[in-house]
Design goal:
- The chain is of the alpha+beta class.
- The chain has two domains: 2-54 and 165-303, no CATH class; 59-137, no CATH class.
- The chain is built from ten helices and four strands.
- Helix 2 (21-57) packs antiparallel against helix 6 and helix 8 packs antiparallel against helix 10 (280-303).
Amino acid sequence: MRRDLLMGQKHEIPAEDNDTSVFMYVLTSIYMYLFVVVLAIFMSISSMAGSWEKDITGSITVQISPIENADKHIDKTKTQEQLHKVEQFIEKVSGVAEVRTLDEQAIKKLMTPWIGTKVDMSTLPIPQLLDVRLKPDAELNYDEITRGLKQLTPNASIDNHRLWLNRLIKFATSLKTIALAILLMVVAICAFSIYYSARTSLNINFESIEILHIIGAKDRFIAKLYAIDYAKIGFFSGIIGLLAAVPCILLVGRYGMSTGSGLLNGASLSNYAWTLIMLTPLFSLFYAMLTSYWTVRKSLEKMV
């Protein structure tokens, strides 16, 4: 008999049947939309920073300034001789995996964003470039390499990218910190909304809860009813937020790749990142369920 009474009361106090349910669906959907978008931004920045560090720290660039003859014209023969000597020297350095000389087309592609396409690059004193790929975990003595290059030719110099790489990494770290702060803020505000909604529902259904207590219902039983209802709200709101966020993520990603900026090439989301994104409705479900359960249990303890 008692079990029948309890089960009969099950639908008298669920959160999804009161006037705040629609508001909670809309509000939680917005929160999950923001959560998914910011999560994607956070993981994109992490991927981009990792790509920068992998590509740039795993390589160095050696440049050889063009040699001029007595008439102040570029002496291509002597420049090529110096380039060949420098290339042989770099290949013998411990920790170097590969040395590649950039051809005119590659150098032109690098210079086009800065000087445009209307300039005749053959008339400019553009240095020759060596792209040097390093072995994993290679530790180079840059001072010693610099001294060796200067003994070969004063026209050679080395760039290990460390200065501007550190600036990029610091910038990416700042963006990640901001994104993480926004994620935490969204989660906290969502928790507060669930807390306020559950407390309001408890006050509205105070008489029904009193009856349940009289016939022997425990606080955990009532809290479980709320947890089930808020789990539904969290799950379906998570799906709505996800469906709204994914097209935005794809659109922004497509636009970013269309800019042709090499710095953004590593900002793509991995399969692991997409898996986390697709699991956000489950996160929303458990988060709403646990938050509402804790809220109701603590509130009922104070009410008693």
